[in-house]
Write the structure tokens for this entry.
Amino acid sequence: MGRDIILSRCCDCENCIYYNTRCSGCSMCEAPLVCNENCTACSYTCRRRPGASYYYGLLSGLDTELLRNAAYHAPAYIPTVPSRINTGYNAEDLQVAAVHGGNFMSASGRAVSGVYASKGVHGALGLNPATKTILHFYVPDRTLEGFWDNRKDIYGHLKQMGFEFVIAPNFSVYEDSPRMEHILNIRRSMIVYNELMEAGVKAVPDVSWYEKKDLELWVGHIKNGGLKLISFSFQTVGPQKRATNAWKGYMLGLRYLCERIPEDVGIIIVGLSGRGRLKEVAKITGKRSVTVINTFAFMRAKSGRRYGSRELALGVTHDELFIQNVKEMNKRYMLLFGKTGLEPE
């Protein structure tokens, strides 16, 4: 019998075709906290689970090339817009808005939410008709699983919405999950990316990873596919001290990627807002095109403050503050990432 993906408890490394190629194994595979043989209480995709053969069948296409996407000349800052803007504004001040997939989809993830389905993106969010939109799927696992199950019925709706591009879903690659789970979820994100492109929806792959082998895989796909735009998320890195190691790890990953992919590949940085950390990112990304997506403009406005100020802003609404923050953050990020001829502050 040839080698196959065979799981004993969670994995049987010695009999797995991906061991030492895509997977370096994990010490957790025999741990009781991962597998106590109670499938009904376990969220992992283990071989013993009903229907698991479908998911493991996806691994047969790990070497499938990613379809080539195009460069996109985005502003330095694209804010996520979580709720409706109830004020008029100049489209030059909010050129591109990011739509949060968790709001765009129903709670189960199996369909577009009612307000977006009936009013469209601009109507649901109160956007200026000239403001362009993108969609990202940095959302809870429950929503992603519903989207995955029903995705082929959703692609047509995404195309109708006219997004500039859609960032492929970030299926979770948790540190404490079995290694095979990482590989499966990275593969699922790649599948959705290619399917979006085939459905006529402009897409951007999400570079999710756990270890060096994952980054090596991505470098190969980016080069061989001639990709021009990718997304790299820092969503799980918080400001607390306990996040320091995670931050260092993500930065090492970003550096590894940037040193090995062509300089004309643009990168969307998701989830960072601290100026100190963004300056470190700018040093690593160098001359390549960088766009930042975060909710910071919205969160500052919600607290009644302008970007860069601790004082409460009086005499303006939260929506007006949001637009002011977007304008200021785009200006600062343009300087930081060299999208003007000026030097950063």
User: Anything to note?
Assistant: The chain has two domains: 13-61, 77-336. The two ends are 64 Å apart (CA to CA).
